[in-house]
Structures are given as structure tokens and as C-alpha cells.
Design a protein that fits this description.
This protein has 8 helices and 20 strands. The protein is an alpha+beta fold and 342 residues long. The chain has 3 domains: 64 residues, Uridine Diphospho-n-acetylenolpyruvylglucosamine Reductase, domain 2, CATH 3.30.43; 156 residues, Uridine Diphospho-n-acetylenolpyruvylglucosamine Reductase, domain 3 (2-Layer Sandwich); 104 residues, UDP-N-acetylenolpyruvoylglucosamine reductase, C-terminal domain (Uridine Diphospho-n-acetylenolpyruvylglucosamine Reductase, domain 1, Alpha-Beta Complex). A 5-stranded antiparallel beta sheet has the order 6-7-12-10-11. A 4-stranded mixed beta sheet has the order 1-2-5-3. Strands 13-19-18-17 form a 4-stranded antiparallel beta sheet, with helices on one face. The radius of gyration is 21 Å and the shape is globular. 40% of the residues are buried. It binds uridine-diphosphate-2(N-acetylglucosaminyl) butyric acid. Uridine-diphosphate-2(N-acetylglucosaminyl) butyric acid binds next to strand 13 and helix 7.
Length: 342
């Protein structure tokens, strides 16, 4: 078997949802833990780039060294009676997130319905604590397993270990490039589901669909419909979801801004105030704008898109232009949510 023989100068276009055509010097996909451990040992001296679903990634140049695609598959109910109300589920890192969510719903389980249709794979979900419609991964996360790159040893990380925050975990800071997440465990409800329908237009969507019996599956359908209306399908138009995080600002700045822009939407975030980046970008005049093949989505200004043959650099330049305009107009610095390579 030559599974460890890398593909040379391999195009990553199909492996990133922006559809950017950069090549990996060496590309290997691994399907089980033994393969992963062996490849990590064999390539210990090479620079390593770990690739999951490629849905939160902007490639701005070719990738030297080894690009390692995590193809670990499998999902199971580990404990059907984890508590009276809960089951414990295990999903391997290479499972496609949305297919996994649909599987939990088919099994009548609750907890992940608001996170329907988020692109990407299970293994990437804890890294940035994915979130949508009032729910974050951390709400159902029980623990994950991750392989240490240096030693090949697998270690468990509890929810506390992961230090989750808004689009953040320890895997983005202290443990960056140290571990590869191999499996994630979720605590999901089998009855008495805690449905969350307060966010945005979920209730309106449920009413429009004529839903009388609210259940995880009907919430999922509503979320899918909302996302399909607002967010571009990466299979049709390249994108990585929200390009920036929603910024949090000091109350003093907020006060001076609301004097000037009384209609500015905001959310309380402890002592700080969170402002939707989409609103700032729209006000700066970028919604629906296009510069060559790099553009801003016309239905959601937080999403940058590749209309066809944009280079990573084109998208990056556009993002910098947006950052500059927003800063000049509002004094707010936008931070990318997407991982920019290198
Ligand atoms: N808005 C505008 N212009 C727009 C779009 C939105 O002004 O073009 C304003 C509206 O006032 C709206 C507010 O922004 O009420 C918030 O918009 P939305 O509900 O669409 O959510 P968001 O804050 O822009 C966040 C997440 C999304 C997630 C949605 C729904 C971040 C960075 N993004 O976007 O996550 O789907 O909430 O929960 O937190 C992702 O991370 O890739 C992603 C898509």
C-alpha cells in the first residue's frame, strides 16, 4: 500500500470552500489514527499544514512541506443512557459537520439543530467554537480527543481545558500547531429538548413554514432555510462564511457612535458592546461590491466571496480595504475570523 506516498504539487482548489487554486507541495490524506501517527513521525522534519474541511481558510500562497488532510470517519452513540435525559455521541474529526448534524436529528437527538448547514468538518468545530442562531458548539460539547503532533499520543480535553469563548478556543492560541483533533464527544438530549428560537428570524421562519410542533428537526429546517436565503452556497460561489468576527467595543466609543448613528444595531457583551460587523461593512459601502472576482456578498456583507478565479491575495486585499474603511469611518478595527495562510 502506498497510502503514505504523497501527491506532489496537488491543487487544493477542491479542498477549500473559497475555491482558491494553490498547490500543496506534498499532500496526504489519513483515514485512521495509526496512519496519522505514522505520517506525523515520518514527516517530523517537514513543515506541516493540517487541513480539515477547508471552510474557514483563505490560502494566499502555495503550501510548502506536508499538507495533511484529516479523513478520519465514524460516528456513534457511545452511551444511550449517559444521563436520564442525555446520550453521549462520538464523531470523528473528518465527518462533514452538516451530515453529522442531520444524523443526530434522524436519531431524534437535540442540541445541534441551530448549527445546521455550517460548512466544514467535525474536527474543526471546537477550534473556533462554531456558533449560529444563539447556540455555540460549547453548549453541547463534552470533550474531544487530540493527537499531539510531536509524540503521536492521544489526549482528552474537557470543556474547561478547551477555554471556549466567542469563535475561540485554546487550539487557536497556546496549543496552536501542537495537537490535531481526532474526535469530538457531544452530550445531546433524547427528550425534553431545550429549543432555542429567540435569535433573529427563527420564529418568523417557523411561522412562515406553518410549524405547529416545534422539535429539533423543525428548528433545523428553519435554520437551513434562513441560511440558504442569506449565505452563499460554497459549491456555487466560493466563500468561507463570516470573514470577520463581530467586534466588541468600549462603552465610551459606543456612546459617541450611537450619537452619530442612532440606528446602529448592538448587543450587550458584559462590560463591552458587540456590533455586527456586517452592519459596519454595509455602512462603509461594500455590500454587494465586486473588485474583479473578489467581492462582498449582496445578501450578507460579512461574507467575502470568490466569483470565479479570485486569488487568495485578491480576497485578502479586499479584506484589508474593508478594514481600513471601517476603521476610518467608525474607529473600529475588524479582525478576521477566517484563518489566513500563511
Ligand atoms: N446586518 C447588516 N447588513 C448585512 C447583514 C446583517 O447590517 O448585510 C446586520 C443586521 O442588523 C443584523 C445583524 O447585522 O441584525 C446581524 O446579522 P446576522 O444575524 O446575519 O448575523 P451576523 O452577526 O452577521 C453571525 C455569525 C454567523 C452566524 C449568524 C447567525 C459571526 C462572525 N458570524 O453573523 O456565523 O451564522 O450570526 O447566528 O459571529 C460564520 O461564522 O461563518 C457565520 C456565518
Amino acid at each position: 500500500m502506498n497510502i503514505f506516498k504523497p501527491k506532489k504539487n496537488f491543487s487544493l482548489k477542491a479542498y477549500n470552500t473559497f475555491g482558491i487554486d494553490q498547490v500543496a507541495e506534498n499532500f496526504i490524506s489519513v483515514n485512521n489514527l495509526d496512519e496519522l501517527r505514522k505520517v506525523l513521525a515520518d514527516y517530523a522534519d517537514e513543515s506541516l499544514f493540517v487541513l480539515g474541511g477547508g471552510s474557514n481558510l483563505l490560502l494566499t500562497r502555495d503550501v510548502p512541506g506536508l499538507t495533511l488532510h484529516i479523513g478520519l470517519k465514524g460516528k456513534e452513540i457511545v452511551d444511550a443512557d449517559y444521563t436520564k435525559n442525555h446520550v453521549l455521541i462520538k464523531a470523528m474529526a473528518g465527518e462533514v459537520w452538516h451530515e453529522f448534524v442531520l444524523w443526530t436529528l434522524e436519531n431524534g437527538l437535540g442540541g445541534l439543530e441551530n448549527l445546521s448547514l455550517i460548512p466544514g468538518n467535525v474536527g474543526a468545530a471546537p477550534i473556533q467554537n462554531i456558533g449560529a442562531y444563539g447556540v455555540e458548539l460549547k453548549d453541547t460539547f463534552e470533550r474531544c480527543e487530540a493527537m499531539e503532533i510531536k509524540t503521536g499520543l492521544v489526549r482528552a480535553f474537557s470543556k474547561t481545558d478547551c477555554q471556549f469563548d466567542y469563535r475561540h478556543s485554546i487550539f487557536k492560541t497556546k496549543l496552536k500547531n501542537k495537537y490535531i483533533i481526532t474526535a469530538v464527544y457531544f452530550k445531546l438530549t433524547k427528550q425534553n429538548h431545550q429549543l432555542k428560537t429567540e435569535y433573529g428570524t427563527i420564529q418568523a421562519e417557523l411561522a412562515q413554514q406553518g410549524v405547529k410542533n416545534q422539535a429539533p428537526s423543525t428548528i433545523s429546517k428553519a435554520v437551513i432555510s434562513i441560511r440558504q436565503q442569506k449565505l452563499p452556497d460554497p459549491k456555487i460561489i466560493g466563500n468561507s462564511g463570516s470573514f470577520f468576527k463581530n467586534p466588541v467595543i468600549e462603552k465610551a466609543l459606543f456612546q459617541s457612535l450611537t450619537d452619530k448613528y442612532p440606528e446602529m444595531p448592538f448587543y450587550e457583551a458584559g462590560d463591552l458592546i458587540k456590533i455586527p460587523a456586517a452592519w459596519l461593512i454595509e455602512q462603509a459601502g461594500y455590500k454587494g461590491k465586486r473588485f474583479g472576482d473578489a467581492g462582498v456578498h449582496d445578501k450578507q456583507a460579512l461574507v467575502l466571496v470568490n466569483h470565479g478565479n479570485a486569488k487568495g491575495q485578491d480576497i485578502l486585499s479586499l479584506s484589508e480595504k474593508i478594514q481600513q474603511s471601517v476603521f476610518e469611518k467608525f474607529g473600529i478595527q475588524l479582525t478576521p475570523e477566517v484563518n489566513i495562510y500563511p
